[in-house]
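Backbone geometry:
***
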Amino acid sequence: PAPREPAAVPAWTGAPHAPLDVLVVDDNTDAAQTLALLLQALGHHARTFGDGASALREVAGGAPPDIALLD
């Protein structure tokens, strides 16, 4: 039998849903800011924090994020 053609991969068109509110926590400021810039370029809202305590204070004082990325 002839070899099968690989399945076509659909083109990625960006965020598949509404923008997310993302909390980025990393003690490496450059890494946190770079990730935040990438998330913003993809249409999301990103807030960065250098430690967990400041991120928790932020969350306790307002609406929780849709997702938190912690290092």
Notes: The two ends are 50 Å apart (CA to CA).
